Amino acid sequence: MIKAKKSLGQNFLEDENIIKKIISTTEIKNETILEVGPGTGNLTEYILKNNPKEFFVIEKDNNLTSILEQKFKNQLKMINDDILQIDEKKITKDKLIVFGNLPYNISTEILCKWILDLNDDQFWFKSLILMFQKEVADRIISKINSSNYGRLSILANWKLKIEKVFDIKPSCFYPKPKVDSSLLIFRPKKNFFRIKNPKNLEKITRIFFNQRRKMIKKPYNFIFNGNLDIQERLNLDLSLRPQNLDFETYYNLAKEYENL
Fold it and tell me: Helix, strand or coil for residue 12?
């Protein structure tokens, strides 16, 4: 039995039925696939059975890299590196379908990195099929006025359509995590709000949600120096809380910030 490394947030998916359900969410045959954090290769094996055109795998753990290379020989292209240090756009010219049982400890960091790199109309992926801790998934798909609504939902919904597929019990993994997981699928939107630099949206949401229980008057005045024109243009009630503003308002705030 391969020992999972807690420092890398490893929980290996072992349930065959869940693996088959994940595989069934998309067409794999003749597609270019990227798997992030393949672990012991259980999902990898099923992806290969579906005859992808080309198959890339990113694995940071040197021990697992060796095991996967022995197990699958020349069937895949191994990238032994840290996902947070890789430029996915340089992996291939093809648009990728990405599978990922993301390490819990860096899952939001990975997703935010991918979102903040989307600074043009050219998406490097067709879809992202990703597993998150259920609590994180709930934040990603949350809506306005809910306690889970925040920076992650605003950033994730900017250029991506998000679908929750199903929850996954701890018993499906080794070692068993202490929490449920959820599978989400992200697909590029054809029409989305135009912001020149995604990092401006990240900055706006970070400042507004820094004190999520307080009124937005203070962060608004901090960023816009109490500008009444912008407030009137966006019809902003400064006595509201950050969770009371919808996606579109935050995108407009980022655009106004860029126009300053």
Answer: strand
